[in-house]
Amino acid sequence: MTAQIQQDTPLFSPDLISPAVTSQLPAGYSIRPLQPRDYSLGVLTVLAVLTSVGEISQAAFEERFRYMHAQAPGTYYLIVVLDGEGQVVGTGALVVERKFIHGLGLVGHIEDIAVAKNQQGKKLGLRIIECLDKVGEAVGCYKTILDCSEANEGFYVKCGYKRAGLEMAHYYETK
Which of 18, 30, 129, 138 is deepest in the core (most CB within 10 A)? Predict the structure, then answer.
């Protein structure tokens, strides 16, 4: 039997959200940890701007949320940006990897940065990256890394990132 969660349960402590980043959002906008209710507020629609999402039911979304919430504390940090009407218009993720190197160091992996098409140009992507960077620093990561297409490299350079290698991928057929 799975544990019940409330629709406003945050994935992680909102105290990790930097007030300095929040203050730079457009008037009426907010940024916070992912919550189960974000399914109905449009988080999957925003992610569809980035890639294929698939048909995900609310129950399946909530089950994945419960899984992430129950993992070793400090692993999953997914955030959402809400517009003045309370709809999700941006999202991003930081996944913290525990290493044996660097004195049992932590590495943050930034993933799934997405902003609704009608919200692009408002620096929301920059604020998402800044927020996740600050979370990574606050939880003790010694670095934060991300993969991007060459077309998006300029954006990430503006966010303070630099080219540090080459991404490789091996995709698997899913059934």
Answer: 129
